[in-house]
Amino acid sequence: MTIADIKKTTETKMEQSIAAFKNNLTKIRTGRANPALLDTIHVDYYGSMVPLSQVANVSLMDSRTISVQPWEKGMGAKIEKAIRESDLGLNPASMGDLIRVPMPPMSEERRKEMTKLARTEGENGKIAIRNLRRDANESVKKLVKDKLASEDDQKRAEADVQKLTDKRMTEIDQLVTAKEQEIMAV
């Protein structure tokens, strides 16, 4: 493995970490409705637990309401029960075949809890990025130790990896700040 390979692999893994971090951020509740909020809910479908998205169409009705359209007539009650029993604090209402899930406004205290959660996710993302930096630097040091690269190459590679790390850290900070603003907006 060459230094270029190490850099490329590290960059790819950092991109994947950022993508996972963004995915985790979408699951944090804000004042607005978001269909991704229901991704964690599983419904009893003929004896097996399946994700809600596999038995119904989940979409937005408006900024404060999620609509859930079951694909089978008999699933409405089961979907409603699964949403009600989830720890999201949502109260679905049935309108014929359609299930409306209104988002209750969050209290100031709940908003602060959510911003703390967003910061925690941000810190976890940063830890993942730092671990990737450490692994890359160790791989470069191993190449130098095995006499496959010079110490100058090591210094340059470590500087490049640090630039990648700094860029990703800034990106995480920006995403967390944006999420906090979204949560605190009434």
From TrEMBL:
* Intracellular or extracellular location(s): Cytoplasm
A GO biological process this protein is involved in? Answer: cytoplasmic translational termination
Q: Is Cytoplasm set as a keyword in this record?
A: yes
Q: What is its main location?
A: cytoplasm
In terms of InterPro entries, this protein maps to:
Ribosome_recyc_fac, Ribosome_recyc_fac_dom, RRF_sf
Domain Ribosome recycling factor positions: 21-184
* GO CC field: cytosol
Would I find Hydrolase among this entry's keywords?
Answer: no
Identify the keywords attached in UniProt to this record, alphabetized. Cytoplasm, Protein biosynthesis
What Pfam families is this protein classified in?
RRF
- Cite the GO molecular-function annotations of the record: ribosomal large subunit binding
Q: What does this protein do?
A: Responsible for the release of ribosomes from messenger RNA at the termination of protein biosynthesis. May increase the efficiency of translation by recycling ribosomes from one round of translation to another.
Similarity remark: Belongs to the RRF family.
Spell out the protein name for this chain. Answer: Ribosome-recycling factor
Source organism per entry reads Limnohabitans planktonicus II-D5
